[in-house]
Amino acid sequence: MRIPRYYIDQALECGQIIPLPDELHRHAVQVLRGKVDDALILFNGRGGEYHAKFSEVNKRHSSVEITEYDDVDRESPLDVRLVIALIKSDKFDFAIQKAVEMGVTSIQPVTAARTVLNLKAGRLEKKRLHWRGVITSACEQSGRTRVPELLAVQSLNDYLLEDDERLRLTMLPEATSTFTELDIESKPVSLIIGPEGGFHDDEVELMRQQTIRLVKFGPRILRAETAVVAGLSLCQSYWGDI
C-alpha cells in the first residue's frame, strides 16, 4: 500500500513530534483510517521529505513523530514558468494540476482579451486559496519536494510589456518555427497559454513586438488545458528531464 504523503507548511526535523493540522488529520485519520505507528511522509516545500509515524490518534486530533529525513530531489533542472490565461474553473484546475506534475516552478495567471472568467477582488482571493490547494495536492501526488510559486493575476498585456530575461514562447497554429528550430540551450523558460477562443490579433502582434518566440505545434487547434500538457512536455523533453 502506498504511504500517504502530505504537504505541511512549517519547519520539520527528525525526532520532532507535531500535531497534524485539522485538514490533514481529517484525511489521514477519518478517510484513510490511520492509526498509531502507521507510516506517512511529510514535506514542507523546502527540499527533501520526512518519514514519520503516528504517535497519537483520536477522533479530534492526531500527532506524528518524524523519524527520518530523505534528501531526495525530484525537481526538474529546467526552470519553467506557466503563463496561463484564466479559463473555466474546472479546466483551469486541471491545467495547473498537470503543470505541477510536469515540473513547473511557477504559475502566472493572466487575463486576456478573450478571457471569459471575470473574478472580482473578493472572489479572486478565494480562487487563489483554491488554486494553492490544487498545487499542493498535485505536489503530494507527484512526489515533488518543492511547491511552485503562484504569482498574482495580471493582464496579459502588462505581462508581455515586462522586461524578462527568460525565454518566452507560445504555441500558435500559424507560427512557422518549430521547437527543433529554436536552437537555444537550456535557460529559464516561460510558456504562454491563451484562453478559450485563443489570443486576440492585437495580443499576437504585441507578442511579435516583444520578441516572444511563436512556435508551431501542428495544424490542429488544442484546448487550453491540452496545450499546457503538450507545451510543457516539449519544454521538458528539449531542456528538462523527460
Layout: helices, strands, pairs:
Blueprint: E1 5-7, E2 17-19, H1 22-31, E3 39-43, E4 49-57, E5 62-70, E6 80-85, H2 89-101, E7 106-111, H3 121-142, E8 149-150, E9 154-155, H4 156-161, E10 167-171, E11 189-193, H5 201-209, E12 213-215, H6 224-239
Parallel strand pairs: 1-3, 6-7, 6-11, 7-8, 7-9, 10-11, 10-12
Antiparallel strand pairs: 2-5, 3-4, 4-5
The CATH class label of the largest domain is Alpha Beta
Query: Uncertain regions: pLDDT < 50 for 5+ in a row?
Result: none
Query: Which fold name fills CATH's third level, the topology of the largest domain?
Result: Alpha/beta knot
Rg (CA only): 20 Å
* Overall CATH architecture of the largest domain: 3-Layer(aba) Sandwich
> Helical residue percent?
25-40%
Largest sheet: 7 strands, parallel
Catalytic activity: uridine(1498) in 16S rRNA + S-adenosyl-L-methionine = N(3)-methyluridine(1498) in 16S rRNA + S-adenosyl-L-homocysteine + H(+)
Pfam families: Methyltrans_RNA, PUA_4
Function: Specifically methylates the N3 position of the uracil ring of uridine 1498 (m3U1498) in 16S rRNA. Acts on the fully assembled 30S ribosomal subunit.
EC number: 2.1.1.193
